[in-house]
Write a structure and sequence with these properties.
Length: 183
């Protein structure tokens, strides 16, 4: 038993003396990589900006429309004919309250009239060009393999209904009125 205790104590003393020699840390070397992150820029000075002009008036309410006379004719003998014609063509302001409607997301509701769908893009362009020459707001969209021709958009569905009837009469195309979206 004494020999065993003596052997164990010799091994413990040898381990206590040799163990620190092996664990000095010289075998492990930590890799130090250079940082390629640039230095943060200096923070700019805070500048207070004062408005130079007065605030605009509140335009959330529509002003009352003023009706202008349809024709104003001033007879002056020395006036050229062009001035007489210009005075007769005064703009007429509508007095009906046709305010735009807002949807649940407070986006104005607009309508568009789809006139035709074509497989051939040249047919859609031809109809579009014909309608543009007549003075209409026309655009086309490609949907899958069809090219669709639209007139509009307009905030008033009633105006588009009237336009639909006139285009049906003039061009023989019967359109469909849809809610206008940007997609």
């Amino acid at each position: 038993m004494k020999r065993r205790l003596l052997g164990l104590s010799v091994l413990a003393i040898a381990a206590a003396l040799l163990f620190p020699l092996f664990l000095t840390g010289e075998g492990y070397r930590e890799r130090h990589l250079e940082s390629r992150i640039p230095v943060a820029p200096a923070m700019p000075d805070i500048v207070e900006i004062q408005p130079e002009s007065a605030l605009l008036p509140d335009t959330s309410e529509y002003p009352e429309a003023v009706a202008l006379p349809e024709k104003v004719i001033v007879l002056v003998e020395n006036q050229p004919d062009e001035q007489k014609v210009a005075q007769e063509k005064r703009p007429v302001v509508s007095t009906d309250n046709d305010r735009p409607q807002l949807d649940e997301q407070n986006v104005p509701v607009a309508w568009t009239l789809q006139l035709a769908s074509f497989k051939d893009e040249s047919n859609a362009r031809a109809l579009r060009n014909k309608l543009v020459e007549a003075g209409h707001k026309v655009y086309t969209r490609k949907n899958a393999d069809l090219f669709k021709v639209y007139v509009g958009p307009d905030m008033s569905r009633d105006r588009l209904d009237q336009l639909k009837e006139s285009l049906k009469r003039d061009y023989g195309v019967d359109g469909i009125i849809f809610r206008f979206t940007t997609q």
